[in-house]
Amino acid sequence: MSNLPLMWTKHLKSDKEKREFELLLRNNTQLFKVLRRHFWDEVDELTRDESSVDDFDSAAWAFKQAYRNGRRAAFFDLIKLTNFIEGN
Length: 88
Prior knowledge:
Layout: H1 15-26, H2 29-50, H3 61-81, H4 83-86
Helix pairs in contact: 2-3
């Protein structure tokens, strides 16, 4: 497994708390794998939705695209936080 992102432990004060929390996270790999699969499914759905030419029939198409881009960026951030499970 790869290193744990700092975000997971930066709220903890002692090294002992950090080690215990990291162990807790690493012992819940099944949960993180389910979450990762969901995040990737959401990214795939966004990709399918944006390939629709029908969006260009709306004057608000740019806002729709910006919304999708923001959601995609958020899902990629969440995926990166779970990379330690996959060893990426």
